[in-house]
Amino acid sequence: MKLKKDPIGLEDFEEYLAEASDFAFELRVLRMLIAKGADCEHGGQYRDPDTKKYREFDIRLRLTRGATTVSAAVECKAIGGHFPLLVSTVPRSAAEAYHQVFKYRPVERTPREPFNIPRVELPEGMQGTRIDDSCLYSVRSPVGKSTAQVGRRETKTRDLHANDSEFFEKWSQALQSLDDLVEEIGDKEFIHAIWNGREHTALALPIVVVPNGCLWSVGYDHDGQRTAPPAQVSRVSIYIGRSYHNGFPGSSLDVSHLEVMTEAGLSDFYDQFLNDERNMRRLTRPN
User: Fold this and answer.
1) Nearest residue to 25 via CA among 82, 76, 75, 67
2) N or C terminus: which one in the chain shows less Cβ crowding within 10 Å?
3) Rounded mean pLDDT of 172-189?
């Protein structure tokens, strides 16, 4: 893109900060999460597992209540109402209606002869445990399959323009940043910190947050026929089916969906699922 050579001044910076600053938006999201009681890390670095390059993450949320831990990679994108995100959905199939969690269970180790070693309990569960038809991802509920930001060009004809590259960049960052969090909840230090001899469950979520009023969804059936007109929504999930491997040999966790939410949608999600121990436990069992 060729830029104008006119100097950028105070008014230009004020316009950018008021209308297009991802940083100001992520600070607002961070402030909301902290006010609700979440433990958050802001603006650190991680190593991209694909490119091996270091990148910055926006927010990492960690929350343990009772026997459940939720970790989330939260990326914020300050898109505007002139270029909102449209997610096209279809009814979720049974094969897509799941998410996985790490479950740490007490097990007994059999002592080896001839030594008389007492039985001890060890955490187990480095393979993801599948939760089918859960409160997060139920069969036949809408699941995202395609995304596009839609706007109009500044021309006399005001042609429509659709693009998903900017959103896809944030999508990718959320998925890559989650790699560290999956490794973290499978780490021995994490296990020893939270494990108390009883079963404990850990869940990892990738989340992209956009401003209120900038997220739309449209429904289709599996034959490609539209089932409803586009409508503003506060949350929509996109199926990804990405497998993450942590440091334990043969261990993995499949992350089934990417969550896309507005600022208000993230607040509602927190209140619905993360505000107390009972609601967090709902994330670890089928409906």
Assistant:
1) 76
2) N
3) 86
160, 186, 238, 273 from 245: Cα distances, Å: 41, 9, 21, 26
- What pairing do the DSSP bridges indicate for beta strands 59-65 and 68-76? antiparallel
Q: Longest C-alpha distance within the chain, in Å?
A: 88
Q: Which residues of 66-75 are buried (b: 16+ CB within 10 A; e: fewer)?
A: ebbbbbbbbb
Per-residue DSSP letter, 31: H
What distance in Å separates the CA atoms of residue 26 and residue 18, rounded to the nearest whole number? Answer: 13
- Which residues are 238's β-sheet partners? 144, 258
At residue 111, the pLDDT reads 54
Backbone φ, ψ for residue 28 (5° rounding):
-65, -40
For the record, the structure tokens of 242 come out as 């990405």
CA 113 from centroid of its chain's CA atoms? 48
pLDDT at site 123: 43
Measured between alpha carbons, how far is 287 from 283 in angstroms, rounded to an integer?
A: 9
| List of residues 6+ apart from 166 with CB closer than 8 A | 77, 79, 149
Residue 5, sorted as left (phi over 0), alpha (psi -120 to 50) or beta, turns out to be alpha
More confident residue, 205 or 102: 205
Question: Coil, strand or helix: which one is 285?
Answer: coil
Work out the mean pLDDT of the chain and round it to a whole number.
86
User: Which residues lie closer than 8 Å to 53 by C-beta, 6 or more apart?
Assistant: 47
Q: Dihedrals φ, ψ of 22, to 5°?
A: -65, -35
Check residue 122 and give its pLDDT: 39
